[in-house]
Structure formats: C-alpha cells, structure tokens
Amino acid sequence: MRIGYEYMLPGVQDTGVEVAIRELLGALAEQLGDDSIHVYARTSKIPPLAGFRNVVVHKAFLAAMGRPCRILWQQLAAPAAFRFARLSLYHATGYVVSPYHSIPTVLSIYDVIALDRPDLTRFANALHYGKILPQGARSATRVIVPSAYVRERLTAVTGVPEAKVEVIPLGVSASFAVTHRDEVRRRLSRVPNLRGRRYLLAVGRLERKKNLSSLIAAFARMLQKEPKDLALVIVGGVGDDLPNLRRTISEAGVEGRVLLAGRVSEETLVALYNGAEAFVYPSWEEGFGLPPLEAMACGTPVLCSNAGALPETVGNAALLFSPDSPLELASKLSLVLAEPRRAAVLKAEGLKRASSFTWAECARRVAQVYRAVIKESLGACTLARERSH
User: Fold this and answer.
1) Confidence tier at 62 by pLDDT (50, 70, 90)
2) Shortest CA distance to 265 belongs to which of 188, 207, 194?
3) Of the candidates 55, 56, 60, which has an alpha carbon nearest to the alpha carbon of residue 12?
4) For residue 56, with 0-12 CB atoms within 10 Å meaning exposed, 13-18 middle and 19 or more buried, which class applies?
5) How far apart are CA 121 and CA 82, in angstroms?
6) Are 329 and 321 in contact (CB under 8 A)?
7) Residue 382 has pLDDT above 50, yes or no
8) Measured between alpha carbons, how far is residue 205 from residues 202, 239, 319 in Å?
9) pLDDT-based confidence at 387, cuts 50/70/90?
10) Rg from Cα positions in the chain
C-alpha cells in the first residue's frame, strides 16, 4: 500500500485532535512497516517519524500559508498531488476532504460540534466545518470517528449511512503513567505559585465548550469548607473564553487560588496529573475526551461531566456530574476529597480503564480500514473492467 496521511493541524491548534493526529501517525508507521506512508504536512520536521524508513514527508507550501490557503490545498491541489504520487488511499485526518479525489479516501471526524453546537466553537470553525464537513463525509469512502456518540450525531445531521462510519477509540500515550512521588515533587517545584499546595486540575484549551467558568464557580463554593491551601490549576492554551474566565475568577474572589498555567510541556503535564487531588473535566460537549483518560493513566481520581461522548469514554471509572450544575460538582468534589476510600476506588478503576485505550490498537484498527477500503476499490475496478468487455 501507498498511504497518504494528512498532517496539517498539528502546530496550528492545541487540542486533543492535534494529539490524535500525531500519536496515530507514529503508531501507524510501526504497524505499516511493509507499506509506505506519504505524509503531507506544513513542515518537514515531524517528531513521531524519526527513524522510520517507510515514511516520506511532503511539505505542502500552499497549506502552510494559513487557513484559506490550507482549504485551497485540501480541496483543489491535493487531488492532483495524490494522483502524481500514485497513492493507494488518502487519509484526511482533520474533518474535511475534497470530493474531487479519484482515489479511495478515509476521513477522520472527531466531533460534530460545528454542526450541533456552533455556539460552542469559534466562528471560523463553525463556518469552515459547518459548510465543508457534511460534503466531505458524504464523499469519503469511509469515515472514522472516535465514539458511537459521534457516529450517531454524524449520521443524524449529515445523512451519511451508519455502515460507512467506523468507530475507533483513540489511545493514551505511554508517557502518561504513575510517577514516583520524588520525581513529581521535583517537576512541580518548577510550576509558579504551586509549591507545597494541594490542588485540583483541569486540562483543556480555554474555550467556551470546556465550561471552565462552572468549574471555577464550584471551586469557589468548595473553598467555604475546604483547607485554605487548596488551589485549582487550569492547563491549556489561550482560547476565546479567557476574558470570561478572568472575570469569573475576579467576581468569585478566588484570585491567587485559580492558576491559569497556560500550555506546559508533556513532562510537566504528567507531573501535574500525578500530583493532583482530583482531575475535573466539566465540558459541555466532547466527541471523545482524552484528558480524563490521561489523568486516569496517572492514577488520579476523575470527575467528568455527563455530556457528549464523555460517559462512553470514561465508563464507570469516573464520577459523573451535570455540566449545568456547579452545586452538584462542588458536592461531588467535596466527597472525593473527604473520603479517601472513594478516591482510591476511582484511582483503581481509572487505571484499569485507561489501560484499555492504546495507540497501537487504534493504529491496528485504522490499518484494517485502509486494507478493507483498498480491497473494495480493487474489487470495484475489476468488476467495472469485466462489465466493459
């Protein structure tokens, strides 16, 4: 097989989608050792590919010039480039694919928030994906989604047949694991204003769908009963909700207690997961939800909203709450902090749950989709030739 793989979003966004595209590529390079992978990217420097001889990186200069140019490349330039490269199949990993391809295409769609809840996403994303995603889903040979929830919503809003949509859960990187206390302490000593403090942790880009203002409200309510040294650490890149979060922090009177840590290295993130009293994910809508699983893999009790695909992802290994109720969240957080036995059960169940999601398994199943699509394509070509004679 000669597989084309789109690598346009990593480096543009700071989301779980970026992580998924990067981690899957590295796992596929191992899985497809006898097949060549042609990676189409904005840059020739792709960390997961070091040492893989079966990978060829093509720098798409036009796509590197911003979103409008990336759209032009995806819709018009890419089909010609793939014919020239004699690809067997192309995997469009970032929500959209051109309907003009003459080769089989696999499309990854991680959520349909742009269609279901445009109010929770950036205007540019709602406009871009809202217009192009349904067209690409209908034209793709096969669509891969990370959860049954996304499959149900995708088929409902686009009319794509359910049989065409393959559910393949994402994986958890082996980097996220229980770490020795001394190492955690050493790494956390570098985090400003955190030394020696107990803390809750939230991870996610500072955007509206993450519902972090509700978490801050719940945290402020908790502080009426909890120890004074308790902090809330929020890790994530700047998004459209930052001004609202700063205003919420000020109005709740929790300045100095809520630490907006921004983006951190993976090493620091692992330490933050390990050191947290609990991890909280209050999102209003998710197509999968990687951070709760990463926290579980680090042995941290997880509290998670019951919205979108999150109940499907965390199973029975997290304490669920309504994203619309800061009061319920505050109550359940207090339970976890006050009852070590409950926290220990969540930790044990979380470790077990996270271990069932690996990038190797994700890549194995994606490779199966590749082979099935190519086999179907070859069969269709043979049948067409027989009919022409």
Assistant:
1) low
2) 188
3) 60
4) middle
5) 31
6) yes
7) no
8) 10, 6, 22
9) low
10) 22
Q: Token pair for residue 254?
A: 């929790």
- The owner of tokens 């409950």 is 342
**What's the 3-state SS for the chain?**
CEEEEEECCECCECCHHHHHHHHHHHHHHHHCCCCEEEEEECCCCCHHHCCCCCEEEEECCHHHHCHHHHHHHHHHHHHHHHHHCCCCEEEECCCCCCCCCCCCEEEECCCCHHHHCHHHCCHHHHHHHHHHHHHHHHHCCEEEECCHHHHHHHHHHHCCCHHHEEECCCCCCCCCCCCCHHHHHHHHCCCCCCCCCCEEEEECCCCHHHCHHHHHHHHHHHCCCCCCCCEEEEECCCCCCHHHHHHHHHHHCCCCCEEEEECCCHHHHHHHHHHCCEEEECCCCCCCCHHHHHHHHCCCCEEEECCCCHHHHHCCCCEEECCCCHHHHHHHHHHHHHCHHHHHHHHHHHHHHHCCCCHHHHHHHHHHHHHHHHHHHHHHHHHHHHHHC
